[in-house]
Amino acid sequence: MAGMVGVVLVGGKSRRYGRNKALEFFQGERLIDRQVRTVGSLFSEVLVITNEPELYLHLDVTIVRDVIPGQGPLGGIYTGLIFAQGKSVFVTACDMPFVQPAVVRRMVQLAKNYDVIVPEKIEGLEPLHAIYSSLCLPHIEQMLDHGTLQVINFFPAVKVYRLSSEEIGQLDPQGLSFVNINTPDDMDRAKELLEGLEESRVD
């Protein structure tokens, strides 16, 4: 999708997983490879943001180190917007293996009229499967200056579209978009979920 950059965040220390989950295998490929492939099918330009770029040099995309290390996902979004050079960014995490193109395309359709497009699940907002425009940059800078790292804290200062759980449900009826993998148990559940989906398709 022209005019927008896909950004994959490879952040965090994977403490709960016990090792670097981005390099764990899922369905025969590493999580990071799967996510880059999915995002690359939707956006012609993809950035991978990480503090360990040497681990991801095999990827055929631009690898970027955080501009300000240690600032969590907010720092990753900030870095993505800076390197997108005025374009909007679709941001996702490397540990969400079921990104649904239909949901992303709908978000992109909405993006021209808003600064942030963010899914609103029953449990709350999902800022790591969201679109951010360059107009978010000064507000994010202000937050980083003050050491406020919760992504959604700057939302009141910009135009936000909350993609409702009803809208998401129409595009992703099985609720796969926001499944993420933080622990080995999550990985097992994701594999079971995939097997269940494949079996239902066969039936």
**Beta-strand share of residues:** 15-25%
- Work out the helicity level: 25-40%
SSE pattern, N- to C-terminal: EEEHEEHEHEEEHEHH
> Quick one: overall form?
globular
Tell me, rounded to a whole number, the average pLDDT: 92
Radius of gyration: 16 Å
| Helix count from the secondary structure assignment | 6
Describe the structure.
By secondary structure, this protein is of the alpha/beta class. The protein is 34% helix and 20% strand. It has 6 helices and 10 strands, in the order E-E-E-H-E-E-H-E-H-E-E-E-H-E-H-H. The protein has helices at residues 31-42, 72-84, 101-110, 137-145, 165-171, 184-202; strands at 4-10, 25-26, 29-30, 46-50, 62-64, 88-93, 116-121, 124-125, 129-132, 160-163. Strands 1, 4, 5, 6, 7, 8, 9 and 10 form an 8-stranded mixed sheet that branches. Strands 2-3 form a two-stranded antiparallel ribbon. A hairpin with a 2-residue loop joins strand 2 (25-26) and strand 3 (29-30). The termini are far apart.
What's the short story on this structure?
It is built from six helices and ten strands; from the N terminus they run βββαββαβαβββαβαα. It is an alpha/beta fold.
List keywords for this structure.
203 residues; 6 helices; globular; alpha/beta; eight-stranded mixed beta sheet; two-stranded antiparallel sheet
How would the blueprint of this fold be written?
Elements: E1 4-10, E2 25-26, E3 29-30, H1 31-42, E4 46-50, E5 62-64, H2 72-84, E6 88-93, H3 101-110, E7 116-121, E8 124-125, E9 129-132, H4 137-145, E10 160-163, H5 165-171, H6 184-202
Parallel strand pairs: 1-4, 1-6, 4-5, 7-10
Antiparallel strand pairs: 2-3, 6-9, 7-8, 7-9
Helix pairs in contact: 2-4
